[in-house]
Amino acid sequence: MARAAVDAPPANGGTCCHATKGPGYAMSLETIEKGPREKLVYVTCVYNGTGINKLDYLATMDLDPDSPTYSQVIHRLPITHIGDELHHSGWNSCSSCHGDPSAKRRFLILPSLL
């Protein structure tokens, strides 16, 4: 995963986002150790290179061990056109914004390539 240049200006208007608290955690290990267990996960599923002529989709999987649908795909959201490829999905605020209290994780972004 690419990292931003060290001298790049902060995205939150000029202050260091690590000075306060916001969504996410500073590092993946911190997420594992301190974060709540995920109950759902969204997985991009692509057919590119498989020879299958179907729509790519976003799968919603159940990760709650107490659920009757644990470890199953519980929903598929197809993209619009065959051949579009789901690519670089993520939240509108990534974990690197963990210190910005104005950052909110409200939208899952799913751009696609033609």
User: With helices defined by DSSP (H or I, 4 residues minimum), what is the helix count?
Assistant: 1
Largest sheet descriptor: 3 strands, antiparallel
Biggest β-sheet: strands ordered side by side in the sheet: 1-2-3
Number of strands: 7
Q: Regions with pLDDT < 50 over 5+ consecutive residues?
A: 1-10
Measured on Cα atoms, how large is the radius of gyration?
Answer: 17 Å
User: What's the shape?
Assistant: globular
The figure for the number of domains is 1
- Termini gap: 23 Å
Mean pLDDT level: 74
Strand composition percent: 15-25%
| Helix fraction bin | under 10%
Reading the helices and strands in chain order gives: HEEEEEEE
Instruction: Briefly note the structural class of the backbone.
Output: mainly beta
Family: Belongs to the selenium-binding protein family.
Keywords: Selenium
Protein name: Selenium-binding protein 1
Pfam families: SBP56
Can you describe what's shown?
This protein has one domain (24-113). The chain has a three-stranded antiparallel β-sheet with strand order 1-2-3, with no helix packed on it. A two-stranded antiparallel ribbon has the order 4-7. The protein has a two-stranded antiparallel sheet with strand order 5-6. The chain has 114 residues and is mostly beta strands. Helix content is 6%, strand content 23%. The chain has one helix spanning 28-34; strands at residues 40-45, 57-62, 73-78, 85-86, 90-91, 108-109, 112-113. It is globular, with a radius of gyration of 17 Å. The protein is built from one helix and seven strands. Belongs to the selenium-binding protein family. GO terms for molecular function: selenium binding. This is Selenium-binding protein 1.
